[in-house]
Sequence to fold (357 residues):
Amino acid sequence: MIAGDTTPLLITGGAGFIGCNLADRLAQEDENVLIYDSLARPGVEENLAWLRRRHPRRISVAIADVQDQAGVREAIAGAAAVFHFAAQVAVTTSMQDPHHDLRVNLLGTFNVMEALRRRPLPCVFASTNKVYGELVGRDFVCTEQAYVPREAGCWHGIDERQTLDFRTPYGCSKGAADQYVLDYARNFGVPAAVMRMSCIFGPRQFGTEDQGWVAHFLLRAMAGEAITIYGDGRQVRDVLYVDDAVQAYVAAWRNIGRVAGQAFNLGGGPTNAVSLVQVIREIERLLDRQIELRFAPWRSNDQRYYVSDTRRVRAALDLPDPTDWRVGIESLLRHFEDFGRGAPTGSTPHLAGVASA
Fold:
């Protein structure tokens, strides 16, 4: 697609956290963007209003659900490419209502792929590291602040050869959707790629205990409230600043002929591998005060350690080194401060929306 073409790029779940950041980036580059979002998650209207204020001539909106097969087909009929973010994003919610999780994540994605089978367009799908489950076959040891792999000295993280191991309804629905996208690329020629994301964080995100934990920790700490840790706090994730994630999605779209039919692990990698406790200590340093911690039992199927091996995605898309996690957290703090996000959690306005975890 040539920059400035009037045919829009479609972003399902585009009012959500990652989707709205992607829309903003594309509109800044003179691309037209169609946001397709049901606005089911409270607060996403604010992200949509923000996009419309910034790009009144570039942003168009369809308030619709990916469960609506006809609506999806109509949106894709007028699009130049698809970024598919619309999803039910929380493991805990999937445990409470597996049927809803399945309808949105699997059947919604199936609707997108069926429409693309009839009209093949470039598509980049937001998957999750949860497709790898409990990382069977990996051995981790517990240090004072974090779980680490026994082979840490020479290990680059979890690569795409790791065995798929769907756990929880969320893992099943996203994992099955992930496989459908790859299958439609291989069998029906849909130029589609998959990004199995780790923990993305940054502006326009409203974190909760269920999804967006870095923003959640920061908001609680700014409000002077206690943070509940499920487990011992030493579980490790590779956090990635949202601008870096957006760069990967844009690069995948622009190089879809080279990456179609492939899945990539997308996260901060070993250099941004941090435990929950380490993130909390950094927030304490930034705020110059101690945070009250409360501990609760481990959540079902919580990974003790997940760090993406990002060498394949960085090589395939020529991505730069990721933003240092400390720089990213400080940037998010400044964003919240600019918007006055320091009130008690119950009165804090929402900042984010539907996106893959």
